[in-house]
Amino acid sequence: MGRLNEFSIAFTFFFLKLSGLWVAENSFEERCRRVTIAYSIFVIFCHCCVITTDTYYCRGDFGVTLYNLSNVLSTYMSVFKLLCLLTQRKDFHRLIRYMRREFLNGEYDPHERSILAACKGTSTFYICTFSSLSNSTLMSYVISPIIVNIGRNESDRIHPFNVRLDLPLAMTPYFEIIFILQAFALYQTGICYFTFDNTLCMFNLHAAGQFRILQYRLETMRGAKITEERTGDLNACPSRHVDIYYEAFKTHVRQHQELIAFCNRLENVFSFYSLGQVLLFSLLICLDGYMILVAEVPVSRRFIFVFHLIACIAQLFMFTYSCDRLIQDSTSVARAMYAAPWTDLPMNKDGSRLRKEMVLVMIRSRQPSCLTGYGFFAISLETYTRVLSTAFSYFTLLRQGSTTMK
């Protein structure tokens, strides 16, 4: 299980390298990173031009227009994500470095390691599930025209996406060249579609895990090195070691402040990113549902939207669940603070000071650390239900509109 848990981290970091937003460790890696990001921008831009042009020329056909609109929204979402993180590249890299240094390579006791392992296990499940669904969607875009082309004449073959060029694109070797270029452009677009969401999920779940580790340390008032150095068993006679408790408490408060600062940096980097995601999710789910249930499309194309719909719902749940865990675990610090062994401390000057500062921590913990949609709303599992409800409303309106047009 340990190797499997580490796989999600290595898997996410690998695709970050392919997207061009990895943290370079030396000048050679920095040059490779710049080439990769230039490649990502170029191929995604070309892909956007192809599907946007096809959408314009097919605007008279309602069904084809909706099919192209779904592709346009998915592609533009990848562009939006890439641009958001490019503008916040330095802060994004600081988040990666901090997580690697403090979360993944920190010092933990056996119970804390079990909490961290649970975080990695949850992260592995969601990242692998969503990545598999996303890759299945990408593969369906490539496999669908291959199946359709079986038995067709060489002059009647189709590509994954229509290309408007004055060339015999259905003939060899133009067909093979365009097909391979589209497959590469599609996959690079897909990498930017799911990799950044995987990274955000990993950030959220590991930050939530650190809040749970903090809760455990507060409940037991352990974790400060001074505790181990000055007493063998702190719980044996806590009234004699108020100063040791206070030193341990200050260490935990500093950890709490660092976690809050990390979540604030996470909010600065991903707030606008999250707003765009939430706004586009309802449209994508609506269009996918329409193409599956209402539109008259080939079976091969219908499978594309089945995979895409499942991937969108999984992506939305992963996104909102990880944000919800961050809210729940950050507010639970107050409960852990109250459960700390403060009742065993004497009511002297040091004991009273410690109690007053514990109250301040509890008050601060009532304000959750959360990710918002650019400050308009906090993202939680409630957001998940609202987006699905909005998507269903859009689907109903679209179906009624298409029926009226017929």
Would you give an account of this structure?
This protein is mostly helical and 406 residues long. It contains twelve helices and no strands. The chain has helices at 2-19, 27-57, 62-87, 89-104, 110-149, 174-220, 225-230, 242-293, 299-331, 333-338, 349-365, 381-405.
Summing up helix and strand content along with how strands pair, one would put the structural category as mainly alpha
In DSSP terms (H or I, runs of 4 or more residues), the helix count works out at 12
What's the pLDDT, averaged over the residues?
A: 87
- Helical amount among residues, as a percent range? over 70%
Let me know the largest β-sheet.
Answer: none
Shape: elongated
Low-confidence stretches: 223-238
Q: Please compute the radius of gyration using only Cα atoms.
A: 26 Å
Order of helices and strands: HHHHHHHHHHHH
Please state roughly what percent of the residues sit in beta strands, choosing from under 5%, 5-15%, 15-25%, 25-35%, 35-45% or over 45%: under 5%
